[in-house]
Amino acid sequence: MTNNILVVAEQSDGKFKSITHQMLGEARRLAAQLGGSVEAVVTGSGVTVSAAQLGAFGAAKVYVADDASLARDEPELVGPTLVELIKRTQPSVVFVGATPFGLALAPRLATHLQCALTSDCTGFAVEGGQIRVTRPVYGGRAIAVFEARKLPLVASLRQNAFAPLGAGAGQAAVETLSVIPVTLTTKVVETSKSESGKIELTEAPIVVTGGRGMQGPENFHLVESLAGLLGGAAGATRAVVDAGWRPYGEQVGQTGKTVSPSLYVAVGVSGAMQHLVGMKTSKVIVAINKDPDAPIFKVADYGIVGDALKVLPLLSEEIMKLKSQG
Amino acid sequence: MKILVLMKQVPDTAAPITVTNNAVDASKIDKYAPSPYDEYALEQALQVKDKDAATKITLVTLGPARVREMIMQGLAMGADDAVIIKSDGSGDLDGLAVAHILAAAIKKIGFDLVYAGVKGVDDDQGWVGIAIAELLGLPLVNAVRSTTAQGPAVRLVRDVEGGRETVEAPLPALVTSSQATEPRYPTLRGIMGAKKKPVQEWTVDSLGVSADMLKPRVQMVKLDMPPGRQAGRLITGEPAEQVKELVRALREQAKVI
């Protein structure tokens, strides 16, 4: 077994996702403590061109599994190729993103390798030669530290929980992998795309969430327009999703998405436990609610007691002014 | 169709957790409940049964004596029978160990379709369902929100990045559920009927899983309450002033816009 870390890179439309840079950043920090190096693997169709880029972000070596059959983002397709790579190159740690792809991939890898798995991790450290992993448990109501008893450790990293490191002068050796063919037993019979150009909620640097205080689905354009102005994504509480005002894909909280943006704006959100666990690790939280006793104010860095429908348009206006000043 | 629903009982997700000496303080847990994703899994299975009366649903769980309450609730909601695999030490088992036990159990029971929650809201790993599919070589569809039966196959709708897709899987298959319509409440008739439904109790030993498979690959060494957030500053004044001050603070103090 080496002390190396293997990062399973993720791309979208030919560009590496921000989680890939976050994983490489954390991998470099952890590899320095372990005395190993960082390697990356890029999978997909037509991905060879961009693979070498990862050298500048700290990957000493990049493996490429480039095949037309990998065009679909399906963990089942890349699993066997990655298992072979891990068996051959013997990393101590394998990083994947805690994305829908990564959360489905990591348990497959750990099952095949009969090794340690930690999902949705928020911190890594080395103590006495042991890798210690911090991750929320009980839906974010407690924080646990785990140790691997059987390496490699396959870990999925929470999005936006790790800082990327800037590009350097490093260069990566690129090695092409032979892709192990997989015949999928499941097939996609229908797809519907959400609006293009929208930022994925879990990746957004800023999230604006509307709750019951928005009073009805007709007012959510106010949430969307503020999110748009800030270059962020719109979210919703479970109550408004259950009421059918917003789609489930926007739900933030225990049974929805967990987000960790640099700015979280909760508008007309009371702050039920199941919501708080999904956004509490945001860097800065703003709450706008007309009930001064709403629990959301207990976690907010800045609070405004007021009617969401009045405050929100003023806030958008103020942001617009700021933008026009450059 | 024969459906199995894998369920796990966890501390009620609406109440806080108290941590004492690196462990959850069980004496402070007032109530246990099915993990919410397992309730979604059961609701999806019940919706398949709603459309096809010949469908039979068996609940399968691993846990201590208290899990019977969850099983009776599931039977009252409409499941037909249940298997409880008795285990007092499930805290020491990692997801893959649990998967080995459940995989052995469900092979013994027999099935066309297996449902599991996408993760248990306790260890939050999301390992068990996927691992069972891998161990038994079953087609797997992850994070599903609704199911429709389609002859020898099932159609499953799931949210993916940037949209939604419908996936067709041949049977037998395994599905993990991330959502459903609001799980139904048991009716009074359901509650009365549940008492007559068969519940079997099995032991882990009877399933012939080797000790090696049950050895933990990952172990929790520390448990804490999450770091609390300090309540911040309430911005007072007229709405226009409040908003101006907020934007100034976000820009100059917090530096996030």
Polypeptide structure, described:
The complex is a heterodimer of chains A (326) and B (257). With 326 residues, chain A is of the alpha/beta class. Chain A is built from eight helices and 18 strands. Chain A has helices at 18-34, 48-51, 75-89, 100-113, 220-229, 238-242, 273-276, 308-324, and strands at 5-8, 11-12, 15-16, 38-44, 61-66, 93-97, 116-121, 123-127, 130-137, 142-148, 153-157, 173-176, 187-193, 206-210, 233-236, 263-267, 284-289, 302-305. In chain A, the strands form four sheets. Chain A has a seven-stranded parallel sheet with strand order 7-11-6-1-4-5-12, sandwiched between helices. Chain A has a five-stranded parallel sheet with strand order 15-14-16-17-18. A three-stranded antiparallel sheet of chain A has the order 8-9-10. The longest helix of chain A is centred in the first third of the chain and has 17 residues, at 18-34. Chain B contains seven helices and 15 strands. In chain B, the strands form three sheets. Chain B has a nine-stranded mixed sheet with strand order 11-10-9-12-8-1-6-7-13, sandwiched between helices. Classes of the chains: A alpha/beta (326), B alpha/beta (257). At the A-B interface, helix 4, strand 7, strand 9, strand 10 and strand 13 of A face helix 1, helix 3, helix 4, strand 9 and strand 10 of B.
